[in-house]
């Protein structure tokens, strides 16, 4: 993992601020929905000074093959539709919590028990939360 100072510097270099209607965010949400991700939410972090991204997208998958399918679908569709590849990703070996970092959007695909334990929505409770369940 990168130190916080590096994340803060990386954020400042990003010139394009995303909107809730941005193409990359819509593409990520669509890919998750197509692979039957559950309890999909986005957190708008733009008004939080300490945030390292504009948005977090969080969803659950009930098993490891579904986590793999969702993460692959996101990466493929974002590359095809937006021309973007992830800056970083983690968790693809254990498939309990996969993180895909597109700098301004960070995607968290989690098993339900991990999501309950880490409570990202509570940690970032100052953010505007929007549900995206089909």
Briefly characterize the structure.
With 134 residues, this protein is of the alpha+beta class.
Could you characterize what this model shows?
The chain is an alpha+beta fold and 134 residues long. It has a single domain (19-128), classed as Beta Polymerase, domain 2 (2-Layer Sandwich). It contains five helices and six strands; from the N terminus they run H-H-E-E-H-E-E-E-H-H-E. The chain has helices spanning 4-13, 23-34, 64-82, 112-118, 120-123; strands at residues 38-44, 55-60, 88-90, 97-101, 105-110, 128-131. It has a six-stranded mixed β-sheet with strand order 3-4-5-2-1-6. Helix 2 runs antiparallel to helix 3 (64-82). Residues 11-15 have low confidence and may be disordered.
